[in-house]
C-alpha cells in the first residue's frame, strides 16, 4: 500500500465544503485482502492500537458501525480502513475531525481516499502514520509479499506520542483555538497568518488580529508595562492596590541582602519573564535565595531580578476582558494524595489514568510527570519516587500551579467577593490592557482582601484561557466569546462582499467589468485574475492568480472592501477555494478545456468542478441559461436567488422563471438594436443597448455582450443601482491596459489587429464568429495555436473551427511546448485544416510565436483583419504597437446585428428531466445518485 499522489484542499472542493486531504492510494496485492480476510487478530490489534475506532459509526451511523464493517462478510478494503485511522490519529492529538470518504478511481486497487483535517502538516502526518500502522500490523505471511520498507524499530506507543507532541506544536494552542472556535460560532471568518498563533479575524477592511490572547486592539505600552514587573508593581502600589514588598537586584549578594531586608520567606523571579518561568517561591535561607537568583537569571532577558515578599494563600487567576472581570480560577499545582499503599510513582500513574488527562494540551488536564523539578521537590522533602505517602497526605510535584505541568483549575467566578472583583478590574485598567490576567494570592476568594489580606503578584498580557474554558471543576466560562464580542460588537461587519466567477471562457473580462462597475460605485476592489491580483485597480502581484493563495491576498488586504474572485479549474482541482463562501457566484459557461488532466476527462466532469464555485454562494447564483451544464447547477445552489442570463428572449425555462417572479437578464431585440434587460419580480428594467458597450465592438462581439450581462447581473445582485451599472459598462473597454489579452483591438495601421488569449475550441469559435461579423474590406488572417497539454481531439477541433473562415493561416506553437515536439501542434493544426479543404498555400507553419506574429504583421495589407491568438500577451502587444506601418487606413464601422440563432431550450436536455418551481423561480432538478460510504 502506497500513496501515489496527494492534494491538500484548503477550502470548499469537489469532495467537501471544508478542508480535506485527498490521497490517491495503490493497495497493490492488498486489493485482494479486505480486513476480515486478513483475520480477526489483525482487527483486534488495530482496535487495541486505536481504541477510539470503536466510536466510529461509518455507514451504520452509530458507535461500533465501523467495527462491524471490519468484521462482517469479507470486511472492508484497507483504503477505507486507512481513512478511519487517519481521522482517529488526529483525534488522539485533540483535533476534532470526522469526515472521510474512500472511492475507487476506476483503476483496480487505486482509490481516492479523502479525510478532513484542521492543520495541514498534522493531517498529512496522520495519513502517513496510519499507513505505517496498518502495514506493521499485517501478519508475517502478508508482510513477506509486500513491496514495503518495514521499520524493525517501529514502536506504536512511541510513534503515537511523538505524533501528538508534534501535532500540538503545529495546531493552535488552547487559548488561540478557543478564540477561533468562538469566531466560528459567530460566523466570523478567520485566516491563520503563520505557523503559530497569529490569526486574522474578518476580511479586508473589517479585519482584526490576535496573537494568542493579545489582540490588535491591545496597546503596546500596556504590554510593555505588564512585562516589566517593577513598573507594574509600582503602578499598582501607587493606586493603593494590594501588592507584596519588592526590590530590584542585579547580583546574588544584593538578592540576599534584599531578602533579609524584606524578611523571609521571599520569592525570586525574573523582571521580564512570564508563564511562571524562573520563579522560585517560599525561599527561607540565603542559600535558597542564591539558587533562586541563578534560576531567575536563566530565564531573564534583563540583568535585573526581583525579590519580593512571599504571600501565602491560594493562587487565583482573575481574567478581565474589556474592563470587566469575566472569570476567576483557583489554580492548584500538580499533586498526589497518599493512600498508604502505593508509591509516589504509582500514585502518579493512577492520577494519569484520569481520562481528562493527556499529553500536553491534548485534553482538559495534562499528565503528571516525575521530571527534574518534581524530583528536586521530592529530594527536598526527603522522599523519592518509591516513597509510600501516608493516607490523606498531599504532596505537590510543582511549586507553581500551571495547567501545562499537571495543575488543576477550579472555577470561582460566581463566588468572588465584589471587593476582589473591583480590585482586579482596577488593576487591568491601570496597566491599560484590553485582555489581562491578574495573579492574586488570597486564602479565600469569597472574602474581601481588605479584611483577610492578599496580594497581586503579577499582571499578565496574553493570559491563558484553558483554565477558564475547560476548568477541572466548576462551570466553563465563554471568555473567548467575550473577546470576540469586544473585537466585533453585535451588528458590526466582519465580512466584505465576495463575488466569485468561474467558467471556461470570459472569466477575466467579466471579473474586470464587475470590478470596474464596483470601483466607479465607490468601492475599493480587490480582484484575482489570470493576469494577476489587483487592488483598487493597481496590479499587486503579476501572474495567473486564480487559485486559493491569491484569494487570500485579497481577503488579507486591509484596504479592500469588495472582492472579485476569478476562479479557474486548475486551482479548484489542486487546492479548492481560498474562501469558505461567497455572496454572489456566477458560472459563465462550461466547454472542453484542459480535459484529460487531473482526472477531468469529460465536460460533465469539468462542470462538477466548476459547480464548487456556485455552491459557495449564499445569496445569488448567476447562471448561463444557454449552457445546459450551467443550467443544471441551479438545483445545487443553496442560495436565496437564482439569476439567469440568456441571449435568447424565447428561452422557455427563463420565461417560466420570470413569470414565477424570478430574476433574469435577457438580450432583447428592439428597433435600435439589442437591449440588456433585467427582470426582477415582474419588473422589466432596460439596462443598456449592446452597441453602446465599448467592449462589445458595437454589439458584434457577442461573447463580450454576454460577459457584460453577467457583470450587470452580479452588480445588480449586490444592490448597485442601474445608473452606476450603465456608467460602468459604458466606460469599460477592452484596451490592452484595461483587459490585457482579452480581445484587444489595435487599429492605428491601415489594417485592424485583434489580440486574444483564446486557448480552447469554444474561445477560438467565439473569435472566429467575431471575425465573420466584422466588416472586413480585404483578407482575414489568423495566427493560431493551441496549448500542448490539450488533448489531440481538442487541437483538431480547434483547427476544424478555424477552417473556412480565414484567407491565410499562420500556425504556431506556445513558448511552453508542454510535452509536445517543437512543431508538433502547428503541424497537427495544418493537417486538419487541409483535411477541411484549406489549400496548403494558404497555410504557413512558423513554430516560434515571435516570428509568427511578425510574419502576420508583415503580411497584413490595407483593409485586412489580423487575428492573433497569442500566448505571451505582453510580448505580442509590444510587437503589435511597435510594428512599423507607413499607411493609416480608414476606420471600419460595423452595424448592430442580432445574436446567432440560439439553440432551442428543449434541445438542451433529456426529455425526462424534471423542473422544480419554488419561491426562487424555476430550475432543472438535480440528478440524485446513491453513494454510501
Please tell me about this protein's structure.
The chain contains 31 helices and 40 strands. Mean pLDDT is 89; it is low at 885-901. Helix content is 33%, strand content 22%. Helix 11 (252-262) crosses helix 12 and helix 28 packs across helix 29 (824-835). The strands form nine sheets. Strands 25-24-23-26-22-27-28-29-30-31-32 form an eleven-stranded mixed sheet, with helices on both faces. With 933 residues, it is α/β, with parallel strands linked by helices. The protein is elongated and about 105 Å long.
Task: List its traits.
11-stranded mixed beta sheet, alpha/beta, 6-stranded mixed beta sheet, 40 strands
Itemize the secondary structure elements and their pairings.
Layout: E1 2-9, E2 20-26, H1 35-38, H2 40-49, H3 65-71, H4 78-92, E3 100-104, E4 110-116, H5 120-136, H6 140-143, H7 156-170, H8 174-185, E5 190-192, E6 198-201, E7 208-211, E8 214-215, H9 220-227, H10 229-238, E9 246-249, H11 252-262, E10 266-270, E11 280-283, H12 286-298, E12 305-309, E13 314-321, E14 324-332, E15 335-337, H13 344-352, E16 357-358, E17 365-366, H14 372-380, E18 394-396, E19 408-411, H15 418-431, E20 435-442, H16 449-452, E21 455-461, H17 466-469, H18 479-487, E22 498-502, H19 507-520, E23 525-528, E24 532-535, E25 538-542, H20 548-556, E26 562-566, H21 569-575, E27 582-587, H22 603-615, E28 617-624, H23 628-631, E29 641-646, H24 652-659, E30 663-670, E31 673-680, E32 683-689, H25 702-717, H26 722-730, E33 744-746, E34 752-756, H27 761-773, E35 780-784, H28 792-802, E36 808-811, H29 824-835, E37 843-845, H30 849-859, E38 865-869, H31 873-881, E39 915-918, E40 921-924
Parallel strand pairs: 16-17, 22-26, 22-27, 23-26, 27-28, 28-29, 29-30, 34-38, 35-36, 35-38, 36-37
Antiparallel strand pairs: 1-2, 2-4, 3-4, 5-6, 6-7, 7-8, 9-12, 10-11, 10-12, 13-14, 13-20, 14-19, 15-18, 20-21, 23-24, 24-25, 30-31, 31-32, 33-34, 39-40
Amino acid at each position: 500500500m502506497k500513496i501515489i499522489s496527494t492534494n491538500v484542499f484548503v477550502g470548499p472542493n469537489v469532495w467537501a465544503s471544508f478542508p480535506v486531504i485527498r490521497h490517491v492510494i495503490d493497495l497493490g496485492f492488498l486489493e485482494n485482502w479486505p480486513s476480515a480476510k486478513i483475520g480477526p487478530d489483525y482487527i483486534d490489534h488495530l482496535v487495541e492500537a486505536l481504541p477510539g475506532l470503536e466510536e466510529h459509526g461509518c455507514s451504520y451511523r452509530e458507535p461500533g458501525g465501523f467495527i462491524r464493517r471490519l468484521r462482517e462478510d469479507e470486511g472492508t478494503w484497507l483504503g477505507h480502513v486507512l481513512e478511519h485511522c487517519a481521522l482517529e490519529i488526529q483525534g488522539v492529538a485533540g483535533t476534532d475531525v470526522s469526515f472521510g470518504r474512500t472511492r475507487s478511481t476506476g483503476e483496480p486497487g487505486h482509490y481516492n481516499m479523502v479525510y478532513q483535517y484542521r492543520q495541514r502538516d498534522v493531517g498529512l502526518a496522520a495519513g502517513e502514520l496510519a499507513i505505517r500502522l496498518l502495514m506493521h500490523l499485517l501478519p508475517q505471511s502478508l508482510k513477506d509479499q509486500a513491496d514495503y520498507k518495514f521499520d524493525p524499530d517501529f514502536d506504536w506507543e512511541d510513534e503515537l506520542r511523538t505524533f501528538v507532541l508534534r501535532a500540538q506544536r503545529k495546531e493552535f494552542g488552547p487559548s488561540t483555538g478557543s478564540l477561533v472556535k468562538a469566531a466560528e460560532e459567530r460566523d466570523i471568518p478567520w485566516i491563520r497568518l503563520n505557523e503559530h498563533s497569529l490569526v486574522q479575524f474578518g476580511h479586508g477592511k473589517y479585519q482584526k488580529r490576535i496573537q494568542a490572547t493579545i489582540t490588535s486592539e491591545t496597546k503596546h505600552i500596556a504590554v510593555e508595562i505588564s512585562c516589566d514587573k517593577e513598573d507594574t508593581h509600582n503602578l499598582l502600589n501607587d493606586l493603593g492596590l494590594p501588592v507584596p514588598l519588592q526590590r530590584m537586584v542585579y547580583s546574588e549578594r544584593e538578592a540576599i541582602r534584599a531578602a533579609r531586608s524584606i524578611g523571609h520567606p521571599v520569592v525570586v523571579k525574573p523582571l521580564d519573564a512570564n508563564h511562571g518561568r524562573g520563579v522560585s517561591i517560599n525561599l527561607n535561607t540565603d542559600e535558597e535565595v542564591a539558587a533562586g537568583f541563578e534560576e531567575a537569571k536563566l530565564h531573564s532577558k534583563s540583568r535585573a531580578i526581583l525579590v519580593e515578599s512571599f504571600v501565602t494563600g491560594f493562587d487565583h487567576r482573575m481574567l478581565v476582558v474589556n474592563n470587566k472581570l469575566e472569570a476567576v480560577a483557583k489554580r492548584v499545582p500538580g499533586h498526589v494524595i497518599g493512600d498508604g499503599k502505593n508509591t509516589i510513582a504509582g500514585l502518579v500513574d493512577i492520577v494519569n489514568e484520569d481520562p481528562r488527562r493527556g499529553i500536553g494540551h491534548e485534553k482538559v488536564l495534562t499528565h503528571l510527570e516525575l521530571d527534574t523539578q518534581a524530583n528536586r521537590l521530592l529530594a527536598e522533602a526527603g522522599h523519592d519516587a518509591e516513597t509510600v505517602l501516608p493516607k490523606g497526605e498531599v504532596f505537590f510535584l510543582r511549586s507553581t500551579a500551571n495547567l501545562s505541568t499537571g495543575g488543576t483549575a477550579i472555577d470561582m467566578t460566581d463566588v468572588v467577593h465584589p471587593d476582589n472583583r473591583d480590585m482586579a478590574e482596577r488593576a487591568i485598567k491601570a496597566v491599560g490592557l484590553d485582555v489581562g490576567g491578574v495573579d492574586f494570592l488570597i486564602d479565600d476568594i469569597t472574602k474581601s482582601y481588605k479584611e483577610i489580606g492578599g496580594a497581586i503578584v503579577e499582571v499578565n498580557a496574553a493570559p491563558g484561557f484553558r483554565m477558564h474554558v475547560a476548568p477541572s471543576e466548576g462551570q466553563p466560562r465563554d471568555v473567548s466569546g467575550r473577546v470576540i464580542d469586544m473585537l466585533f460588537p453585535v451588528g458590526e461587519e466582519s465580512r466584505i462582499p465576495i463575488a466569485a466567477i468561474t467558467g471556461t471562457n470570459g472569466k477575466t473580462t467579466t471579473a474586470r467589468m464587475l470590478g470596474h462597475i464596483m470601483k466607479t460605485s465607490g468601492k475599493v476592489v480587490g480582484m484575482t485574475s489570470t493576469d494577476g491580483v489587483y487592488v483598487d485597480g493597481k496590479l499587486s502581484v503579476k501572474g495567473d492568480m486564480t487559485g486559493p493563495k491569491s484569494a487570500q491576498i485579497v481577503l488579507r488586504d486591509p484596504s479592500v472592501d469588495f472582492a472579485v474572485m476569478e476562479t479557474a479549474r486548475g486551482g479548484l482541482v489542486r487546492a479548492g477555494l481560498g474562501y469558505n463562501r461567497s455572496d454572489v457566484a456566477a458560472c459563465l459557461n462550461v466547454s472542453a478545456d484542459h480535459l484529460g488532466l487531473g482526472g477531468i476527462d469529460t465536460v460533465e466532469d469539468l462542470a462538477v468542478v466548476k459547480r464548487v464555485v456556485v455552491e459557495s454562494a449564499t445569496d445569488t447564483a448567476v447562471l448561463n441559461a444557454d449552457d445546459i451544464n450551467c443550467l443544471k447547477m441551479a438545483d445545487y445552489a443553496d442560495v436565496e436567488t437564482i439569476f439567469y442570463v440568456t441571449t435568447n428572449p424565447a428561452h422557455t425555462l427563463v420565461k417560466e422563471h420570470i413569470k414565477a417572479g424570478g430574476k433574469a437578464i435577457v438580450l432583447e431585440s428592439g428597433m435600435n438594436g439589442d437591449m440588456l434587460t433585467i427582470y426582477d419580480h415582474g419588473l422589466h428594467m432596460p439596462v443598456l443597448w449592446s452597441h453602446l458597450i465599448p467592449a462589445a465592438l458595437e454589439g458584434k462581439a457577442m461573447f463580450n455582450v454576454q460577459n457584460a450581462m453577467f457583470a450587470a447581473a452580479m452588480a445588480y445582485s449586490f444592490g448597485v443601482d442601474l445608473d452606476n451599472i450603465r456608467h460602468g459598462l459604458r466606460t469599460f473597454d477592452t484596451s490592452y491596459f484595461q483587459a490585457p489579452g482579452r480581445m484587444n483591438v489595435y487599429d492605428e495601421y491601415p489594417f485592424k489587429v485583434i489580440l486574444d488569449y483564446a486557448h480552447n475550441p469554444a474561445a477560438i469559435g467565439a473569435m472566429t464568429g467575431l471575425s465573420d461579423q466584422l466588416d472586413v474590406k480585404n483578407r482575414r488572417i489568423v495566427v493560431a495555436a493551441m496549448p500542448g497539454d490539450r488533448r489531440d481531439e481538442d487541437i483538431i477541433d480547434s483547427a476544424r473551427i478555424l477552417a473556412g473562415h480565414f484567407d491565410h493561416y499562420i500556425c504556431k506553437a506556445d513558448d511552453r511546448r508542454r510535452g509536445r515536439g517543437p512543431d508538433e501542434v502547428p503541424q497537427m493544426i495544418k493537417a486538419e485544416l487541409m483535411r477541411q479543404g484549406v489549400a496548403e498555400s494558404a497555410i504557413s507553419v512558423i513554430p516560434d510565436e515571435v516570428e509568427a506574429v511578425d510574419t502576420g504583421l508583415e503580411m497584413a495589407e490595407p483593409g485586412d483583419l489580423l487575428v492573433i491568438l497569442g500566448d505571451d500577451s505582453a510580448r505580442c502587444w509590444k510587437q503589435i504597437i511597435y510594428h512599423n506601418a507607413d499607411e493609416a487606413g480608414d476606420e471600419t464601422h460595423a452595424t448592430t446585428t442580432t445574436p446567432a440563432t440560439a439553440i432551442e431550450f428543449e434541445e438542451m436536455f433529456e426529455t425526462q428531466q424534471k423542473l422544480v418551481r419554488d419561491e426562487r423561480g424555476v430550475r432543472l432538478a438535480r440528478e440524485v445518485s446513491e453513494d454510501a460510504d
